[in-house]
Amino acid sequence: xxxxxxxxxxxxxxLACAVYYSDGEFHASAVTENVTSNGGLLRGTHVVTVGMxxxxxxxxxxxxxxxxxxxxxxxxxxxRFGVEVQEADCGPVGELVDEEELLGxxxxxxx
Length: 111
Prior knowledge:
The protein is mainly β and 111 residues long.
């Protein structure tokens, strides 16, 4: 596996949360290993390829779920893969969303 530490632009936060991901052809589940405000490392049940675009539902502990409309796979090593997301492609999921959450930044991070 290639060492990605030298390519990191932002610090990683260890966080394990459930993720469901799909490219429209398959539906799979994963667990995050670490996250940043613009992506993360996941361990998934379905193999993905570099460049693949995924829709993801991220379910962090003690927070509303986060819908990521487009996450781009940047690297793959067996069942682990890294994704990059843009803030514009993310939004909270749920019937009751605090107005403060809508105004604040949206990210994988649990703030």
